[in-house]
Design goal:
Layout (H helix, E strand, L loop, with lengths): L14 H8 L4 H13 L4 H7 L8 H13 L3 E6 L2 E6 L3 H14 L3 H13 L3 H19 L2
Antiparallel strand pairs: 1-2
């Protein structure tokens, strides 16, 4: 998200902690995270209103899921008046990257290579060029002190 420093894994985080943060989400959890990435921050009612009607469950259900996502470290919450305001702790790209990395880490090297080849093989030339440019930017950025 613009203007926010992304959350990094800390040296004291165990592999289990990182995996817990990026473990696969259930359908409602995914919808809630998507809504928050779209609206950037919101109360239970804000998030509930941003959900597709199919997922707009009871207030208490949404609140429980938000609190569980906060406990997992995927959301932050801060008291705003009489309500809590929830914000994503990770950008959507960070979450996706960590989820893929966690999934790939548990796979054999052959399965990893095949999965990555299938993902990359599905890109057109323009997307490949953009991906290569982004990879170069990330490489240069990771070298800075």
């Amino acid at each position: 998200m613009p203007g926010r420093e992304p959350i990094r894994c800390r040296w004291w985080d165990t592999a289990a902690t990182v995996a817990r943060r990026t473990a696969a989400l259930g359908d409602l959890q995914s919808q809630i995270m998507s809504a928050l990435w779209r609206i950037e921050a919101g109360t239970v009612e804000d998030v509930r209103s941003a959900l597709p009607s199919r997922y707009r469950g009871a207030y208490n259900t949404i609140q429980t899921v938000l609190n569980r996502l906060a406990e997992r470290g995927l959301l932050t919450r801060r008291k705003r008046g009489n309500a809590f305001e929830y914000r994503p702790a990770l950008t959507e790209a960070e979450f996706l990257s960590r989820s893929i990395a966690t999934t790939l880490a548990g796979a054999s090297s052959g399965a990893r290579r095949t999965a990555l080849a299938q993902l990359i093989g599905g890109l057109d030339q323009s997307e490949l060029e953009q991906l290569q440019a982004l990879a170069r930017e990330l490489e240069v950025g990771s070298r800075k002190p």
